[in-house]
Write a structure and sequence with these properties.
The complex is a heterodimer of chains A (231) and B (267).
Chain A lengths: L8 H19 L1 H21 L3 H6 L1 H26 L2 H7 L4 H31 L7 H26 L5 H29 L6 H27 L2
Helix pairs in contact in A: 1-6, 2-4, 2-6, 4-6, 4-7, 4-8, 6-7, 6-9, 7-8, 7-9, 8-9
Chain B lengths: L1 H25 L10 H25 L13 H27 L3 H33 L7 H22 L3 H16 L1 H11 L15 H37 L18
Helix pairs in contact in B: 1-2, 1-8, 2-8, 3-4, 3-6, 3-8, 4-5, 4-8, 5-6, 5-7
Classes of the chains: A mainly alpha (231), B mainly alpha (267).
Chain lengths: 231, 267
């Protein structure tokens, strides 16, 4: 990108993010649908497992992250459908901004959406599964942010690909789910430790795994995304 | 005996592999006049001979293992299969990176071929491992880090091959599948190192350094045979991919608007 006037990367990320959040806020339909979908998923787990509170409480972390992952597929799929409706992605490409800014703004936007969703789900999960929370809100928040970031970075790249492909509803989970397994495992384990207490001090190593995962996939997404949306 | 066998198998395999790579360049373009049949027959022959020799060595010539008895003999096919899967996926990773730097249908076709062949060898190795797991560990599938990491990696490549089927535009397909291939390739070091990072049920990698000297030669012969098979499979799949791509790229001239070149109009 070497036109006469370019907008700096942080500034274009901010502008694009503000645009996405504004669209999100004006419709609110996506967030509402996501919240009810994720709540229904949490409820369904308790029906599928049966009303065994001990079992539900022990697996609460895993169920929370599965609900978030399923909801994230809807959120990610939607994040590029919005751009395609009026060919706005072409408009964004023509704008004198770095293509990588589109990745960063979309990935940050998806992370914010998932974190908000997780923050709504956690109290419901605690009440529904009868969980005792052993640790304070800070480790909870760190786990939530790191886990949602881990879903968002590869998810944004893959949803940009899948939104243009045939059978896009099948393709996104098919590509994303196996890739996300290490992050899902780490996030679920970290959540379980936050809920049940961490006498062996293992929480840090799961945070390390999540941070490494984020570092790799945010870096890869940042580097490769311009190639994904080029024509 | 050992040195002679080793020399013969290594020479046969190296000659076949060099022949294969030469063929890949010379023979691949559709309609090429270059007659590759004799060379391909020679490669197939070398593969069959080495496979027969390797099977005899693996089943008869090598001694039974101290603890597992005869059950261990599956390493002569399981280990080479996994090596070849890794090799094919490394080729795929290299092609994906190369394509993003310099777009070429050849790189794209080789990426497609290597991903599918890697998937084939990986699944074969995984199934063989499960068959070995039942008498040794008592279960077909244990949630051991090595097994799980390998299975996850294979599923990511299933996603890769699915993506290739779901995108019609050849250029977009090539770019997107390169991106997905690079992202999926990140898993490979995790799979390779998993047996050292999380020491659990699966033993460390079987390489000539960790295997008993009596068994090294049989393993080598089988690995050379697998390598020739890998190159043969890759060549065939690469040629099919390249022919498909050429048909796709030439498609616009066959659209119904141009009646002279549309075969369906010519009765």
């Amino acid at each position: 990108m070497k036109p006469g006037r370019t907008i700096s990367l942080p500034r274009s990320v901010g502008v694009l993010l503000a645009k996405d959040l504004l669209i999100e806020w004006r419709t609110r339909a996506r967030l509402n649908a996501l919240v009810f979908f994720a709540l229904a998923t949490l409820l369904l787990f308790s029906f599928a497992v049966g009303p065994d509170t001990k079992l539900l409480a022990r697996n609460a972390g895993g169920y929370l992250w599965l609900a978030l992952l399923f909801a994230s597929v809807l959120a990610l799929g939607e994040s590029f459908r919005v751009e395609q409706e009026n060919l706005t992605l072409d408009g964004l490409r023509l704008a004198p901004a770095d293509a990588r800014a589109i990745f960063l703004s979309k990935a940050v936007g998806n992370t914010l959406l998932l974190v908000a969703l997780g923050a709504l789900l956690i109290p419901v999960m605690v009440a529904l599964y009868g969980v005792q929370v052993a640790m304070g809100p800070l480790p909870f928040a760190i786990t939530l942010v790191l886990g949602c970031m881990a879903i968002s970075a590869p998810g944004t790249v893959y949803s940009a690909i899948a939104s243009n492909a045939r059978a896009r509803d099948v393709l996104l989970p098919l590509l994303l789910f196996p890739l996300i397994i290490p992050a899902l495992l780490a996030a679920a384990k970290a959540t379980a430790l936050v809920l049940q207490g961490d006498p062996m001090e293992q929480l840090g190593s799961w945070y390390g795994l999540l941070s490494g995962f984020n570092l790799i996939y945010w870096g890869l997404g940042f580097a490769l995304f311009p190639r994904v949306i080029e024509d | 005996m050992n040195t002679v066998l080793q020399l013969v198998s290594t020479t046969a395999a190296l000659v076949s592999v060099v022949l294969g790579i030469y063929l890949g360049v010379k023979w691949a373009p559709v309609g090429s006049r270059f007659n590759a049949r004799p060379a391909l027959y020679a490669m197939t022959g070398a593969a069959v001979v080495l496979l027969a020799l390797g099977s005899w060595m693996g089943l008869v010539w090598t001694p039974p293992e101290r603890e597992m008895g005869h059950v261990y003999r599956i390493i002569y096919v399981h280990v080479p299969a996994m090596w070849m899967a890794m090799l094919a996926l490394v080729i795929n990773f290299g092609c994906c990176i190369a394509y993003l730097f310099k777009a070429s249908w050849k790189t794209d076709a080789l990426a497609e071929a290597s991903a599918e062949i890697g998937l084939l060898f990986g699944t074969y190795g995984l199934v063989l491992g499960s068959i070995w797991g039942k008498p040794t560990w008592g279960v077909y599938w244990d949630w051991d880090p090595r097994l799980t990491a390998m299975a996850i990696m294979l599923v990511t490549y299933v996603g890769y091959t699915a993506l290739r089927r779901f995108v019609e535009d050849p250029e977009k397909r090539a770019v997107w599948s390169s991106v997905v291939g690079i992202i999926s390739g990140i898993n490979m070091p995790i799979v390779w190192k998993s047996v050292q990072w999380w020491r659990s049920l699966h033993q460390v990698q079987s390489t000539p350094k960790t295997v008993d000297p009596d068994m090294v030669l049989a393993l080598r012969v089988n690995a050379w045979a697998s390598l020739i098979l890998l190159v043969l499979f890759l060549l065939h799949r690469y040629r099919i991919a390249l022919a498909t791509r050429e048909a796709e790229v030439a498609l616009p001239s066959a659209l119904p608007t141009d009646t002279r070149t549309n075969p369906s109009e010519v009765v």
